[in-house]
Structure formats: structure tokens, C-alpha cells
């Protein structure tokens, strides 16, 4: 779930170079309303309302998470906070399941002191029949699904966040504490990774 949160964080850092609304270089949408709020210390959210070049209204969220703080952790999540059986559930239900699982002091195997779910973000594509992710799913160091042909976002066991390609999966999978799959790179090594194209899907992304 945190793959896109981190991608949005990278976008926020690179938006001037990307030609974002603030720099006046965006040809694809015009923001007409924006609000920002602090969800918790080290976690902020920006909600933007915009009209696209083809007259569609969109709402997009930019989450910024300070992963360097000792009191913030990033977790992958799935269904009822268990990746051993495929299923489908909404992000809000997944967050509620994680909150319930990790805040019960009578369950010492799963209890995490001061645990509180703050932000949940959709990550990978998935099988619409059974809910199996298309790419990586690693929770608490357990690999439930391999990366396959997809890229991935992960947190290493030493706390380092990484974005890796499917070709790098075998290199990192044993070092991953949490991971989710993702599709195309938008920004890689500080450079825009989406090639200029007439394809509106790519341009919109």
C-alpha cells in the first residue's frame, strides 16, 4: 500500500522538474482546489481537485511520510493482515484489520506498542477473481508473492526504503521486511522515467 505513497513523495520532490502546476508547465490538468493537513507527526496529506485537458474532474492525493523518524513504520498489508490466503477487501477494511491485530495487549505475538494506522494507499494490480496480487507481497519478512514481471516498493530489514525492478527482485527479496508490487516507473534515479508520448494514458500518469 505504501508504494504509491512513496512515489507521491518522490513526485512532490521533483514536481518543479516535472512541470507541475506550481511551475505553470502542466498541460494535462489544472488544479482548482487544494487542501493540506497533518495526519500525524511526520505524515502529511495534500488533496488536489483538478480538471484534465479532456474536461474530466480528478482528485489526487499526495502523501508525504518521513520514513527517517523512529516513531514511523511502513507496513505492507493484505486483506485481514494475513497474506496466506487470497481474498479481496477495501483499503479501509485492511487498515481496520491491522489496527485490531496489533493493538491487543492480550495477543503478545502480534501486539505493537503505540501502534496506530494513519495512512493507507492502494498498491499493486490484482486478480479480480481471487484477489492475488500481480507482483510482490512481503509482510513482516515473509514472502507471500513473488515480483513476477513487476517493479516493487519495499522496506529492507535495516529500515531502508527501496524501489526495485523485477530484475532486482532476486537480489533484494531475502533482505525485504515489507514489499508491494507496482507498475511503471514515473521517476527513477532523479529523472523522469515516462517517455514523451502521444499516448494520453502515459502522459496522464
Structure description:
The chain has about 200 residues and is α+β, with helices and mostly antiparallel strands. About 20% of the residues lie in helices and about 30% in strands. It contains 4 helices and 10 strands. The protein has helices spanning about 1-20, 90-100, 170, 200-205; strands at about 30-40, 45-50, 55-65, 135-140, 140-145, 150-155, 160-165, 175-180, 185-190, 190. Strands 5-4-8-6-7 form a 5-stranded antiparallel sheet, with helices on one face. A 3-stranded antiparallel sheet has the order 1-2-3. Strand 2 (about 45-50) and strand 3 (about 55-65) form a beta hairpin. The longest helix is centred in the N-terminal third of the chain and has 17 residues, at about 1-20. The protein is globular and about 55 Å long. Residues about 15-25 have low confidence and may be disordered.
Amino acid at each position: 500500500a505504501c508504494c504509491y505513497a512513496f512515489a507521491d513523495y518522490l513526485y512532490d520532490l521533483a514536481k518543479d522538474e516535472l512541470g507541475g502546476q506550481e511551475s505553470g508547465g502542466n498541460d494535462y490538468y489544472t488544479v482548482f482546489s487544494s487542501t493540506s493537513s497533518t495526519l500525524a507527526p511526520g505524515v502529511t496529506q495534500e488533496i488536489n481537485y483538478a480538471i484534465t485537458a479532456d474536461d474530466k474532474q480528478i482528485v489526487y492525493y499526495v502523501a508525504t511520510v518521513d520514513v527517517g523518524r523512529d516513531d514511523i513504520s511502513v507496513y505492507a498489508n493484505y486483506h485481514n493482515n494475513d497474506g496466506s490466503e487470497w481474498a479481496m477487501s477495501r483499503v479501509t477494511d485492511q487498515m481496520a484489520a491491522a489496527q485490531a491485530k496489533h493493538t491487543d495487549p492480550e495477543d503478545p505475538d502480534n501486539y505493537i506498542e503505540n501502534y496506530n494506522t494513519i495512512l493507507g494507499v492502494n498498491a499493486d494490480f490484482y486478480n479480480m477473481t481471487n484477489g492475488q496480487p500481480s507482483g510482490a507481497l512481503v509482510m513482516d519478512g515473509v514472502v507471500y508473492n513473488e515480483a513476477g514481471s513487476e517493479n516493487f516498493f519495499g522496506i529492507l530489514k535495516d529500515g531502508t526504503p527501496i524501489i526495485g525492478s523485477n530484475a532486482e527482485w532476486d537480489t533484494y527479496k531475502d533482505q525485504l521486511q515489507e514489499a508491494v508490487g507496482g507498475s511503471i516507473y514515473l521517476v527513477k534515479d532523479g529523472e523522469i522515467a515516462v517517455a514523451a508520448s502521444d499516448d494520453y494514458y502515459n502522459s496522464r500518469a
